[in-house]
Protein backbone atom coordinates (compact mmCIF):
# COMPACT_ATOMS: atom_id res chain seq x y z
CA UNK A 1 0.00 0.00 0.00
CA UNK A 2 2.81 2.41 0.87
CA UNK A 3 4.84 1.80 -2.28
CA UNK A 4 2.15 2.75 -4.82
CA UNK A 5 1.17 5.69 -2.62
CA UNK A 6 4.79 6.85 -2.59
CA UNK A 7 5.14 6.46 -6.35
CA UNK A 8 1.94 8.44 -6.89
CA UNK A 9 3.00 11.25 -4.59
CA UNK A 10 6.46 11.43 -6.16
CA UNK A 11 4.86 11.81 -9.59
CA UNK A 12 2.12 14.25 -8.58
CA UNK A 13 3.87 16.30 -5.88
CA UNK A 14 7.60 15.73 -6.30
CA UNK A 15 10.31 13.96 -4.33
CA UNK A 16 10.64 16.65 -1.66
CA UNK A 17 7.01 17.47 -0.94
CA UNK A 18 6.16 17.06 2.72
CA UNK A 19 3.36 14.59 1.92
CA UNK A 20 5.83 12.46 -0.03
CA UNK A 21 8.30 12.64 2.83
CA UNK A 22 5.62 11.61 5.29
CA UNK A 23 5.10 8.40 3.32
CA UNK A 24 8.87 7.85 3.16
CA UNK A 25 8.97 8.12 6.96
CA UNK A 26 6.05 5.69 7.27
CA UNK A 27 7.91 3.17 5.14
CA UNK A 28 10.93 3.66 7.40
CA UNK A 29 8.75 2.87 10.41
CA UNK A 30 7.47 -0.25 8.68
CA UNK A 31 10.96 -1.49 7.85
CA UNK A 32 12.03 -0.86 11.45
CA UNK A 33 9.10 -2.93 12.73
CA UNK A 34 9.97 -5.66 10.21
CA UNK A 35 13.51 -5.86 11.56
CA UNK A 36 15.09 -4.31 8.46
CA UNK A 37 17.32 -1.61 10.01
CA UNK A 38 19.36 -0.90 6.86
CA UNK A 39 16.27 -0.22 4.76
CA UNK A 40 14.70 1.77 7.62
CA UNK A 41 17.76 3.97 7.93
CA UNK A 42 17.73 4.68 4.18
CA UNK A 43 14.13 5.86 4.40
CA UNK A 44 14.73 7.93 7.52
CA UNK A 45 17.82 9.57 6.03
CA UNK A 46 15.90 10.43 2.88
CA UNK A 47 13.03 11.87 4.89
CA UNK A 48 15.42 13.82 7.10
CA UNK A 49 17.24 15.41 4.16
CA UNK A 50 13.92 16.32 2.57
CA UNK A 51 12.43 17.84 5.71
CA UNK A 52 15.61 19.82 6.40
CA UNK A 53 15.39 21.24 2.89
CA UNK A 54 11.65 21.90 2.92
CA UNK A 55 11.01 22.91 6.53
CA UNK A 56 14.37 23.58 8.16
CA UNK A 57 16.43 21.71 10.77
CA UNK A 58 14.33 22.73 13.76
CA UNK A 59 10.84 21.95 12.46
CA UNK A 60 8.91 19.36 14.43
CA UNK A 61 8.65 17.03 11.44
CA UNK A 62 12.42 17.16 11.04
CA UNK A 63 13.00 16.57 14.74
CA UNK A 64 10.64 13.60 14.76
CA UNK A 65 12.76 11.95 12.04
CA UNK A 66 15.88 12.70 14.07
CA UNK A 67 14.22 10.98 17.01
CA UNK A 68 13.32 7.98 14.83
CA UNK A 69 16.96 7.68 13.79
CA UNK A 70 18.01 7.93 17.44
CA UNK A 71 15.83 4.96 18.38
CA UNK A 72 16.96 2.97 15.35
CA UNK A 73 20.65 3.52 16.09
CA UNK A 74 20.13 2.72 19.74
CA UNK A 75 18.39 -0.57 18.91
CA UNK A 76 21.29 -1.46 16.60
CA UNK A 77 23.85 -0.78 19.30
CA UNK A 78 25.23 2.23 17.40
CA UNK A 79 25.42 4.18 20.62
CA UNK A 80 27.68 7.00 19.42
CA UNK A 81 25.41 7.75 16.47
CA UNK A 82 22.33 7.42 18.68
CA UNK A 83 23.72 9.87 21.23
CA UNK A 84 24.39 12.47 18.52
CA UNK A 85 20.82 12.15 17.25
CA UNK A 86 19.31 12.27 20.74
CA UNK A 87 21.31 15.38 21.57
CA UNK A 88 20.14 17.04 18.37
CA UNK A 89 16.53 16.06 19.00
CA UNK A 90 16.73 17.27 22.60
CA UNK A 91 18.14 20.66 21.62
CA UNK A 92 15.42 21.05 19.00
CA UNK A 93 12.58 19.99 21.29
CA UNK A 94 13.86 22.29 24.05
CA UNK A 95 13.84 25.20 21.62
CA UNK A 96 10.50 24.42 19.97
CA UNK A 97 8.48 22.95 22.83
CA UNK A 98 10.21 23.79 26.09
CA UNK A 99 11.76 21.64 28.84
CA UNK A 100 8.50 20.18 30.17
CA UNK A 101 6.94 18.90 26.95
CA UNK A 102 6.46 15.13 26.71
CA UNK A 103 8.60 14.87 23.57
CA UNK A 104 11.43 16.65 25.39
CA UNK A 105 11.06 14.46 28.47
CA UNK A 106 10.92 11.26 26.42
CA UNK A 107 14.17 12.22 24.72
CA UNK A 108 15.80 12.98 28.08
CA UNK A 109 14.71 9.59 29.40
CA UNK A 110 15.97 7.88 26.24
CA UNK A 111 19.33 9.59 26.70
CA UNK A 112 19.36 8.20 30.22
CA UNK A 113 18.77 4.71 28.81
CA UNK A 114 21.58 5.23 26.32
CA UNK A 115 24.02 6.35 29.00
CA UNK A 116 22.95 3.39 31.13
CA UNK A 117 23.72 1.01 28.25
CA UNK A 118 27.11 2.69 27.87
CA UNK A 119 27.88 2.18 31.55
CA UNK A 120 27.81 5.94 32.20
CA UNK A 121 25.73 5.53 35.33
CA UNK A 122 26.27 9.01 36.76
CA UNK A 123 25.18 10.65 33.51
CA UNK A 124 22.24 8.25 33.26
CA UNK A 125 21.14 9.17 36.78
CA UNK A 126 21.10 12.86 35.92
CA UNK A 127 18.91 12.22 32.88
CA UNK A 128 16.53 9.98 34.81
CA UNK A 129 16.16 12.50 37.63
CA UNK A 130 15.54 15.28 35.14
CA UNK A 131 12.93 13.31 33.20
CA UNK A 132 11.28 12.09 36.43
CA UNK A 133 10.80 15.64 37.71
CA UNK A 134 9.32 16.62 34.35
CA UNK A 135 6.98 13.64 34.13
CA UNK A 136 5.74 14.23 37.68
CA UNK A 137 4.99 17.83 36.78
CA UNK A 138 3.41 17.16 33.40
CA UNK A 139 1.68 13.80 33.94
CA UNK A 140 1.52 13.22 37.69
CA UNK A 141 3.28 10.73 39.98
CA UNK A 142 1.24 7.68 38.94
CA UNK A 143 1.45 7.91 35.14
CA UNK A 144 3.18 4.95 33.50
CA UNK A 145 5.82 7.23 31.94
CA UNK A 146 6.66 8.49 35.42
CA UNK A 147 6.69 4.96 36.81
CA UNK A 148 8.93 3.71 34.00
CA UNK A 149 11.52 6.30 34.96
CA UNK A 150 11.16 5.38 38.63
CA UNK A 151 11.86 1.79 37.60
CA UNK A 152 14.87 2.94 35.57
CA UNK A 153 16.24 4.65 38.66
CA UNK A 154 15.69 1.46 40.65
CA UNK A 155 17.77 -0.46 38.12
CA UNK A 156 20.45 2.23 38.20
CA UNK A 157 20.70 2.28 41.99
CA UNK A 158 20.85 -1.51 42.05
CA UNK A 159 23.77 -1.48 39.62
CA UNK A 160 25.49 1.21 41.68
CA UNK A 161 25.30 -0.98 44.78
CA UNK A 162 22.68 1.17 46.49
CA UNK A 163 20.10 -1.42 47.58
CA UNK A 164 18.24 0.92 49.93
CA UNK A 165 17.63 3.51 47.22
CA UNK A 166 16.84 0.80 44.67
CA UNK A 167 14.28 -0.77 46.99
CA UNK A 168 12.54 2.58 47.52
CA UNK A 169 12.25 3.11 43.76
CA UNK A 170 11.01 -0.42 43.11
CA UNK A 171 8.41 -0.15 45.89
CA UNK A 172 7.13 3.09 44.45
CA UNK A 173 7.03 1.63 40.94
CA UNK A 174 5.30 -1.53 42.18
CA UNK A 175 2.56 0.41 43.97
CA UNK A 176 2.03 2.58 40.90
CA UNK A 177 1.95 -0.30 38.45
CA UNK A 178 -0.47 -2.27 40.62
CA UNK A 179 -2.78 0.73 40.58
CA UNK A 180 -2.37 1.60 36.89
CA UNK A 181 -1.92 -1.83 35.28
CA UNK A 182 -3.09 -4.38 37.83
CA UNK A 183 -1.18 -6.97 39.86
CA UNK A 184 -0.79 -9.56 37.08
CA UNK A 185 0.61 -7.25 34.39
CA UNK A 186 4.10 -8.17 33.17
CA UNK A 187 5.63 -4.90 34.40
CA UNK A 188 4.08 -5.30 37.83
CA UNK A 189 5.32 -8.87 38.16
CA UNK A 190 8.81 -7.91 36.99
CA UNK A 191 9.10 -5.18 39.64
CA UNK A 192 7.87 -7.62 42.29
CA UNK A 193 10.59 -10.05 41.23
CA UNK A 194 13.25 -7.33 41.51
CA UNK A 195 12.04 -6.47 44.99
CA UNK A 196 12.12 -10.12 46.01
CA UNK A 197 15.67 -10.43 44.69
CA UNK A 198 16.73 -7.40 46.75
CA UNK A 199 15.07 -8.86 49.83
CA UNK A 200 17.01 -12.11 49.38
CA UNK A 201 20.25 -10.11 49.19
CA UNK A 202 19.30 -8.20 52.33
CA UNK A 203 18.62 -11.41 54.24
CA UNK A 204 22.01 -12.76 53.22
From TrEMBL:
Signal peptide: none annotated. Gene3D superfamilies: Tetratricopeptide repeat domain (1.25.40.10). It comes from Penicillium egyptiacum. SUPFAM superfamilies: TPR-like. Pfam families: TPR_12 (PF13424). SMART domains: TPR. This is Kinesin light chain. The lineage of its organism: Eukaryota, Fungi, Dikarya, Ascomycota, Pezizomycotina.
Amino acid sequence: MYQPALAGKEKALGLDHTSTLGTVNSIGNLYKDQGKPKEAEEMYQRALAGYEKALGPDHMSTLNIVNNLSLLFSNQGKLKEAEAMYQRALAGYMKALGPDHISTLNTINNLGNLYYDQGKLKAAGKMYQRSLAGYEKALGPDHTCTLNTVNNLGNLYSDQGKPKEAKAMYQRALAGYEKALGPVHARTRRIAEMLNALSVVDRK
